[in-house]
Amino acid sequence: MTINVGVIGLGAMGLGVARSLLRAGLRAHACDVRPEALQQFASEGGIACKTPAELGALCEVVITVVVNAAQTEQVLFGEQGAAAAMQPGSLVIASATVAPEYAAGLGERLAAQRLLFLDAPLSGGAARAASGEMTMMTSGPAAAYAKGEAVLSAIAGKVYRLGEAHGMGSKVKIINQLLAGVHIAAAAEAMALGLREGVDADSLYEVITNSAGNSWMFENRVPHILKADYTPLSAVDIFVKDLGLVLDTARTSKFPLPLSAAAHQMFMMASTAGHGAEDDAAVIKIFPGIQLPTAQE
């Protein structure tokens, strides 16, 4: 029997998720605030829904691929939200990076409506989303995994099961974001120093990516700087939010995170300077006295 599955949010990650579902032969529905995104999805064989409620009524598995807790709240419980329209026993897979305590509370609220829930943040970026090879950090009851097995295998290369307690997936995700944010900030700082000292930027990138100082984030983000292309694949403001969640979580247990705090301030500076909607590599723009690469004709 073909599963009806819906994706709410057709951004860089969500569109890749939806396409992976289609490629796996599932009956894929989608909802997005942008009509052009829905039209594109429908032209590829998907089923466009005007509201989350319409999608929820049609689907036994709903994946929310939105930015934060506020958007998760809106698409599930707001006016025309999906949760109230879903049949008992259906599954919600929530993939935004949120505070662990929010994820735990979300599981309780959905259970009260007789819905299953997986706390399932994503990692891997748009390219891995498009190829169905994302990493998912998940937690939830066995019944939720059983319900979503075909969906998870269609969209992810690695699905880590981190226990039954909702919120554990979100805890692991924010630790991942701690490293991602610090690595991006460190990559920007390294490139800024190189530019200040007159090192050729392309040569510096070549050397570092073949040396011990390399990181996945350096290798992935520095080309944005070299091309002067700050089209947001993951925006500066995402790390203002995510590193804020990291620090909030640590604050509750009075745990010091000095590198996270410094990186958070760097992204805050970039956002305040007007770069919040640019790619997170634009954090390099906070450094004074350097000449950044310009776009190649």
UniProtKB/TrEMBL annotation:
This protein's UniProt keywords: Carbohydrate metabolism, NAD, NADP, Oxidoreductase
Database matches in Gene3D superfamilies: N-(1-d-carboxylethyl)-l-norvaline Dehydrogenase, domain 2, NAD(P)-binding Rossmann-like Domain
Residue ranges constituting the 3-hydroxyisobutyrate dehydrogenase-like NAD-binding domain according to the UniProt record: 167-286
Domain 6-phosphogluconate dehydrogenase NADP-binding intervals: 4-163
Keyword ATP-binding listed: no
UniProt-listed Enzyme Commission number(s): 1.1.1.411
Catalytic activity: L-threonate + NAD(+) = 2-dehydro-L-erythronate + NADH + H(+)
Top-rank lineage group of the source organism: Bacteria
MF terms (GO), sorted A to Z: oxidoreductase activity
Enzyme class name: oxidoreductase
Keyword Nucleus listed: no
Family: Belongs to the HIBADH-related family. L-threonate dehydrogenase subfamily.
Functional note: Catalyzes oxidation of L-threonate to 2-oxo-tetronate. Can use either NAD(+) or NADP(+) as cosubstrate, with a preference for NAD(+).
NCBIfam families to which the protein is assigned, alphabetical: ThreonDh
Listed name of the protein: L-threonate dehydrogenase
Species whose genome carries this gene: Collimonas rhizosphaerae
